Amino acid sequence: MDPADRLALTTLAARYALAIDRRDAAAVAALCTPDVVVVLPAELNRTDAPAELRGRETVARSVVGAVSHLVATRHIVGQQVAEADTAGRAHAETYCTAHHIYARGDGHRDNRIAMRYRDTFERSDGIWLFSRRELVVDFAEDVPVTRSGR
């Protein structure tokens, strides 16, 4: 895979994290193909089976809506291993640690989730976009945190 394509895929994952943290549904949608599929594991959808979100508007609205009640989020994208299928399609596994800050009592807590995205990308008009993201939760922890005075 060309180094420019690797950089584009890494940047795409970082832009997705930034868009979620900024609660920017339009930015999330712009990073996805029209028929994107996001697969949420049972741990994140509070059921006993994975759930699929389909279509860029549904994905953007659902993902941003899922974090909108939180005080803050921070998604930290880690390593990504990517392989090209064709000139216009690639796959990657992308690591992420997601911090979800919420109020409890007179303080705050961080529900931290260590996860991986199993990503599929498609190139459209020279731009890489997500066509599928499958989340895998490796572990989670819930810890007290101190927020700086804002």
TrEMBL record:
SUPFAM superfamilies: NTF2-like (SSF54427)
Record-linked Gene3D superfamilies: 3.10.450.50
SnoaL-like domain: residues covered: 4-133
Domain of life: Bacteria
Protein name stated in the entry: Nuclear transport factor 2 family protein
Originating organism: Nocardia speluncae
